[in-house]
Amino acid sequence: MPELPEVETVKRGLEEFIINETIRKVYLSELKLRFPWPKNFISEVVGKEIVSIKRRAKYIIISLNQGYSIIAHLGMSGSYKVLKKNAPQDYIRLKHDHLVIELDNFILVYNDPRRFGYIDLTNKEPEKHKFLSLLGPEPLSNSFNENDFAGSLLNKNKSIKNTLLDQSIVSGLGNIYVCEALFRSKINPKKNCSKLITSKGKPREKLILLVNKINEVIKEAIDAGGSTLRDFSSTDGKMGYFQTSFYVYDRENEKCLLDDCGGVIKRVVQSGRSTFFCSNCQK
DNA sequence: ATCCCCACCTGGCCGC
DNA sequence: TGCGGCCAGGTGGGGA
């Protein structure tokens, strides 16, 4: 489900409700998510207060007092809901509710049909976490710039599509926004990433454009509240609407939306995942 | 190293 | 209506 803009939307939705609340009770389902539940998760978090919530790439970091942080990833189908406590029916367990955190005034519920999500607990700096430490720069940050990006492509030999899905090169992008950013940059997804840099690892024009278009599409999607496909919704139940702005994603056999193009959107499979692009515009 | 492929899951949709 | 097959926003881990 969720790429950077969707996770940012979820993070903003949670932030409104759960900061400064204390964890009173926790329920874990008997099924594990991607990995087994952290040892002693319940006893470690109960009684602690939520002091901040951040996003890094597609991860949500819920920091508690006493230096603890919950690190969470939504996988493909995860979602959070915040319910008002002591409402007539404050919580009725639904299918695929795997984590329920009762706070002072709210109940935070994590639902995940496919259970590809990930939840961990650490008492170290979240950035040092084994998965977070491997992440590349965030789009829209200073560390995501054409020179460093070009340098990270040195000695790489794979398609630009697969390169952009690699979270250690640039983090937070997924299948949708990679397809959209490549379209906006007029780059063919199958192009080898090495062709976008010089032999010395300096950025060529197209790579500079790509950096700008990645930032552009991510910013627009965040402003739209993310994309809503199938079951994704933000914590307040409102839907993001960026899916209405897709140029290529899930538009196989439809016309290219650029007026002067006349091409048709194609779907190909790269490393087992669908890529949508216009072969007429994207060279 | 680097890259590719698989596995992990459920559910929705399409064609027969 | 049922059923098999295919597809889905991700990614760690293992093998080549």
Write the layout of secondary structure elements.
Layout: H1 4-18, E1 25-28, H2 41-45, E2 50-56, E3 59-64, E4 69-73, E5 79-84, E6 97-102, E7 106-111, E8 118-122, H3 146-152, H4 160-165, H5 175-185, H6 205-223, E9 265-270, E10 273-278
Antiparallel strand pairs: 1-6, 2-3, 3-4, 4-8, 5-7, 6-7, 9-10
This protein binds a DNA duplex (16 and 16 nucleotides) through residues 1-3, 6, 34-35, 58, 73-77, 96, 112-118, 131, 155-158, 162, 165, 167, 174-177, 227, 229-232, 249, 271-274.
The gross shape turns out to be globular
**What's the quaternary structure here?**
single chain
Count of helices? 6
- Strand portion: 15-25%
Which range best describes the helical content: under 10%, 10-25%, 25-40%, 40-55%, 55-70% or over 70%? 10-25%
CATH class of the largest domain: Mainly Alpha
**Overall domain count:** 2
β-strand number: 10
Low-pLDDT stretches are none
Order of helices and strands: HEHEEEEEEEHHHHEE
Most strands sheet: 4 strands, antiparallel
Strand order of the largest sheet: 1-6-7-5
Which fold name corresponds to the CATH topology of the largest domain? Helicase, Ruva Protein, domain 3
Q: What would you call the structural class?
A: alpha+beta
The CATH architecture of the largest domain can be named as Orthogonal Bundle
